[in-house]
Amino acid sequence: MATGQRWACPDIVSEMASTTKGSCVKTRLALICGVTMIAVLAGACETDNGPSKPDPVGTAKKPVELTFMAYGPDEEVKAMQSSIDAYNRDNPTVEVTLDAVSDEDDVIDRLESKSPPDVFMLSQRDLAQVSELELNQPIDELLDSRGVPFGDFYKRDAVQAFSVDNHLQCMPYGVSPMVMYYNTNLIDWTTMKDRGLDAASSHSRWSFNQFAEAAKFASNRKGVKGVYIDPSLEGLMPFVLSGGGQVFDDMREPTTTTLSEDSSKEALTRSMDVLNSDQVKLTPRQLRKKSALERFKTGKLGMIAGYRNLVPELRMTPSLDFDVMPMPILDDETTVGDVSGICMSANPASYSDAADFIVNAISAKSVAKVAEAGYLVPSHNEVAESDAFLQPDKLPAHPEVFNRSVRDIVMPPLLPSWKALEDAVHDPIYHLFYDRILDIDAVTESIDEASRTVLSPEDQQSGQPSGSASPGGDESDSPSTAEE
């Protein structure tokens, strides 16, 4: 295929159902297998301009060489390598090499290099940049022609997350919702009920009041705090959205965050009554001495919000008994998610071989092998419901919480750089969590003002957005010195 050529797929059919939550619209989309199949003649990749140079044909002596770039913990990478080794044995005319990078932040740099990988793993939050720069090849027709059942076996929210301009840009691989981890020795639902407290009665859902009671209950023990939520826009989103607020002015092309709007401020006020409570929160000084995760592991923190990738580390912690709950509900069941996909580069060494490898990588057998490492919430429904993921003989005792919470994920807009936005709003959000006397109006206005330096910089006047004072007026607790 010619450099920069994009697949045209005018006949893709999308199904979208919308549920309004405050001002935020949750979308669910499933690609229907009614896609017009790609014409593949004699191994050639056909474009709107006619057939281009045919794909190379590998032999056992001279196989087609493909590179698969992935990131993840060592255990996951080893499982991927095992699957690749099996694939190479079964397909002697292709040689796939795993290129493991340190983390998702390295992906863009490698894609823009002179030797980009043929197939690569990508965080959904980097999809806008990759697609805009045409560093990937939409894969809907390639996979449809190979019989991949998009709507039957893969989580619809994950498929929707990787769909841009009516094309599936990457095949969803993992979809991990933010959930609430809790120490079962510090938070005992039966004891709470015996004491007349409003305790959760199941692991399917719980109210914000029950969450607040659990945080206070854990904090009653000496040296223990109730809960830690990362002071970031990502950490805030489940609470704002659940309380009927909105985070952005437009979910497609945002120009600002909207935390200073009445509905969002109301949700934040309700949330901060707990999250900014001295009784349940860790102080900046405590966090400088030991991170929230370390405190959770040593029994000094009742709850911590996080993703599935925390599970293996927590399992290795001696004497730690933990479980998971969905994010607490102010008004609606809402969370955010960490979604990953497998993509094809714009100009792979072989389109057909790259597509064949992707089909194998997303198969139930390959995904199950990776899921057994404990970090991945598979987008593949069959694997997500299997023991390979649920692992009933290991903690947490209620892994189905991850699968249930996937349907509550609200995906953020596709931004050129999510990290740039988080950096811009870091200081005022920090004050939201740690100011001893919280001026909710001033802080939320500061957050929105800071967001516009990234989301609509052309509208900004010179100068930096104003922020509130350091928490409690204590310089030693300023955002620049209070990181974990």
Short description:
The chain has 484 residues and is an alpha+beta fold.
Describe the structure.
This protein has 484 residues and is of the alpha+beta class. The protein is globular and about 70 Å long. Mean pLDDT is 87; it is low at 1-51, 464-476 and 478-484. Strands 6, 7, 8, 9, 12 and 17 form a six-stranded mixed sheet that branches. Strands 14-15-13-16 form a four-stranded mixed sheet. The chain folds into two domains: 14-49 and 62-175 and 337-406, Periplasmic binding protein-like II (D-Maltodextrin-Binding Protein, domain 2, 3-Layer(aba) Sandwich); 179-335 and 417-477, D-Maltodextrin-Binding Protein, domain 2, CATH 3.40.190. It contains 20 helices and 17 strands.
Features:
4-stranded mixed sheet; disordered N terminus; disordered C terminus; 18% strand; D-Maltodextrin-Binding Protein, domain 2; alpha+beta
- Distinct helical segment count: 20
The counted number of beta strands is 17
Low-confidence parts, pLDDT < 50 over ≥5 residues?
1-51, 464-476, 478-484
Q: Identify the CATH class of the largest domain.
A: Alpha Beta
Number of domains: 2
Based on helices, strands and strand pairing, what is the structural class?
alpha+beta
CATH homologous superfamily descriptor of the largest domain: Periplasmic binding protein-like II
* Separation, N- and C-terminal Cα atoms: 48 Å
Helix content: 25-40%
Query: Based on CA inertia axes, which overall geometry fits?
Result: globular
Rg? 24 Å
- Say what the CATH topology of the largest domain is: D-Maltodextrin-Binding Protein, domain 2
Instruction: Calculate the mean pLDDT score and round it.
Output: 87
Question: Major β-sheet, in short?
Answer: 6 strands, mixed
How much β-strand is present in the residues? 15-25%
